[in-house]
Structure formats: structure tokens, C-alpha cells
Design goal:
- The chain has 66 residues and is mainly beta.
- It has one domain: N-terminal domain of TfIIb, CATH 2.20.25.
- Helices cover 8% and strands 21% of the residues.
- A 4-stranded antiparallel beta sheet has the order 1-2-3-4, with no helix packed on it.
- It is globular, with a radius of gyration of 12 Å.
- The structure holds zinc ion (ZN).
- Zinc ion binds next to loops.
């Protein structure tokens, strides 16, 4: 709270290009809260391209019940 970062600020207007859900900032990537894809951050800029997603739909996310 006392330490705002440019990256988390940027995330306010970023959404997942696949499912349009919000994104959560991680150490070196942004995680989609909707589909679980993880996008890399290059030079501080999230690369929100489906092709570049590092992973998708990890099964620990409750969003996609079988
Ligand atoms: Zn998504």
C-alpha cells in the first residue's frame, strides 16, 4: 500500500486478451485470474499475446470445473 509500483498501476487497464479477465502481477509475469495463463513481462511491459503465454489453465485454479 505504501509502495505503489508502475507495473501494478499499469495492470488497472490491462485484461487478458483471451478471456478479458483481470491480471495479477507476479515476479516476472502477469497471471490471468480468469483462464490462468501467465504472460511474460519484458522490460517492465506485460506481453499480452496468446502466443506468448507461458502456461494456461493450471488445474489448481477453481475457475474451470471439470
Ligand atoms: Zn485469461
Amino acid at each position: 500500500m505504501s509502495k505503489p509500483s508502475p507495473q501494478s498501476d499499469t495492470l488497472r487497464w490491462l485484461v487478458c486478451p483471451v478471456c478479458r479477465h483481470g491480471l495479477q502481477l507476479e515476479a516476472a509475469a502477469v497471471l490471468c485470474l480468469g483462464c490462468g495463463r501467465r504472460y511474460p513481462i519484458l522490460d517492465g511491459i506485460p506481453v499480452l499475446l496468446e502466443d506468448r503465454a507461458l502456461s494456461e489453465a493450471p488445474d489448481h485454479l477453481p475457475d474451470r470445473p471439470k
